Amino acid sequence: MPSVRGCHMPDELLYDVENHIWFQEVGDGNVRLGMTTVATAMAGQLVAFTPKKVGRSVREGRSCATVESGKWVGPAKSAAGGEVIEVNDALVDNPSVANEDPYGAGWMVIIKPDDWDAIKPGLTPGADVTAKYEAKMDADGFAGCE
């Protein structure tokens, strides 16, 4: 598993480095999304998670949820457009799960993407994410997760 300045990035995921979002194919053409450890470390302890409702559509590059911490409120942007088919209700009830387990129990939503085959090549595989995240952290002035 790559680690960038103490921030873990599982190999099996795809990353939208610019927006700090990970993607995982879950079968039937659907994808699960969540925030990276970089996102949760930068935001701090999450206090609210408000996803789009099941059945709603997400436009490419737009918000699939709103995330709030003590120092930040903002959108979780999805590189893929599509329909929200499942939300993580456990994360709604306890947003700090994303801080504790961002790649497991802290996932945000599952979407049925409109055109995954067109979006997927633009995402960064876990094995190749280190250099891109180093550059992003430098640009954002973020020292790391430790």
Can you offer a commentary on this structure?
This protein is an alpha+beta fold and about 150 residues long. The protein has a single domain, classed as RNA polymerase II/Efflux pump adaptor protein, barrel-sandwich hybrid domain (OB fold (Dihydrolipoamide Acetyltransferase, E2P)). Helix content is about 20%, strand content about 40%. It is built from five helices and twelve strands. It has helices spanning about 35-45, 90-95, 95-100, 115-120, 130-140; strands at about 5, 5-10, 15, 20-25, 30-35, 45-50, 55-60, 60-70, 75-80, 80-85, 110-115, 125. The chain has a seven-stranded antiparallel sheet. Strand 3 and strand 4 form a beta hairpin. The model has no long low-confidence stretch (mean pLDDT about 95).
